[in-house]
Write the structure tokens for this entry.
Amino acid sequence: MFYILDGGLQTLVQDSGRKDYYHLGVPPSGAADRYSFCLGNILLGNPIDYAALEITLLGPKIEVRKKTVIAITGAPMDVKVNGQPIPMWESVCVQEGDVLTLRSTAKGVKTYLCVSGGIQVPDVLGSKSTYTLSQLGGFQGRKLLAGDEVIIGEPLPGVFHHVGTRIPEEYLPRFSSSIDIRMVMGISSYRLSDEGLKAFLNSEWQVGLESNNIAYRYTGATAAFQSVDPPFGAGNNASNTVDIVYPIGAIMIPNEKELILLLRDATTGGGFVTIGTTISADLDLVAQSRPHSITRFIAVTHDQAIEARMQRKRKLLSLQSLLKG
Amino acid sequence: MFTLPETRFDFGGDEYIYAEISRDMREESNFKALAVTNELRKRQIPGIQDICPSNSSYIIRFDPEVISVADLLEYLKEIDITKSNPSELNMQVRIVEIPIWYDDPLTQEYSRRFQERNIAHEAKSNFELVMKLNGYAEKERFIEAHSSSPYLITMMGFIPGTAWEYPLGLTKEQIIQTPKYISPRTDTPSQAVGIGGAFTVIYPLSAPGSYQLIGMAAVPVFDQSQRLPDLKDTFFLAKPGDIWKHRPVDEAEYNRIVQQVDEGTYRYRIKYVDFSTEDYFADRKGYLKQLMEGF
């Protein structure tokens, strides 16, 4: 068991997310940076989707109440066991009674604490992930607080023999304050003027403070609309469309000065002009970008989006076989 | 007889196909979206992960590692064409009653709180704004207009349990419409009733939102607690294709219903009917009257 001494800013139970309920408005949720999350599970020899703790910016303080093996991945953070620093991206043995302290991140946003056998909470609608907006899943549908007792799985057979295993440097993600996000144009991008489309693609956008697992907000340029009347039923503002179900990663323009990019806790439908959709391989980068950091949007084809997806998958598979071998 | 518009397909990143039946809202487009997505769900195609009808469109989420996008697109186009026959669109639906306290103090308070994000800053409340934009001088007339027609559930999404309602049987001119907020509110009260474009929604829980708030529903539309008999087997009140009927209630009745909900004794008024789109389009007013009889 993990006994929570201090929950930090927002520590949530997350796995690889929810399926099958999107048509009822239930977003997938799950680890915001899937790549870092998977790397933690791969390090421990866990199934790749085992639930872990997702830490946002300020870490928790946890008393470990069962000897097990952990791995910490994602945004770089100072991690200590009983006051002594321990490495990230490496499997580490912790003893009953150890106190684990995670401090603030200087780069990136999300850090993962993975544990052998995974975090054990009941499945809600088929997943252990937390969707805080509807208080659904995870640990009682909310972030962890002091006094919470979080059940962890039985350490997997053989895991203690592999303590000290590290992720090789070339597999580690980079955390930058200036990123490029690839997206596929479409949906209602025809509602932007040529200048608006150019400004969207050629400008640097700044991540806003109101960004979170639901959506990222950006400002910095003007994405001007066409001067046409919105269709019947949309509402007569230039940014209004008849409401649609949004894809995860959708980039909408509620007004010419603001972009909203939907992440894995997305509000799954709405009626704002949507310029296109972020490719799945780059959603992790979005979730790791900090307020005030710079983002450029790069339009790619559907084929390029698939290629990026497969490249990322091949990387995970090769790491998995490397660590097994 | 009526004809259905032709669908335009588009990609959303690497995992989604977006199918736009029409850019404007039409009842026909929604019936078609329901028919196509119902058929697709029945076929249980491996690699298709989410099937979501929306107001005048639908989206499909798929795994491009299991199913080729070119094949899937061709397959969807085929179903889209077969489901363009109006007689294919008949279905069994439920009529559900939703009691609403219009122009209540809580939604007035939220109107004030987020006024600087709205389209107009001078109106006292969102309710008053929507009334004025639609040419109503009296509160009672507006409430009558919003609650007299039955509404079709044309889409679900936003947050779990949110259902878009579109008024049936009206001409475009009769439908209450309003622009959304210019920048979404960061909060909305749970069970608030909002209007955006030609649609009404009830916010299932507190959430961000961009619809103009006009009242409070007395009953939940999403409930994980399973305390209500009608929501024992599901968290979600709505199903696409349902028909909802708003009933105005005053503060006293609102409070009575809220108490019944809290105690777990409230029963939703629900009636099951067979809905024929052909009969509906032949005589919309007459058919709705017959459908809503005794409700």
Remarks:
- Residues 2-171 of chain A form one domain.
- Chain A touches chain B through 63 residues (CB under 8 Å).
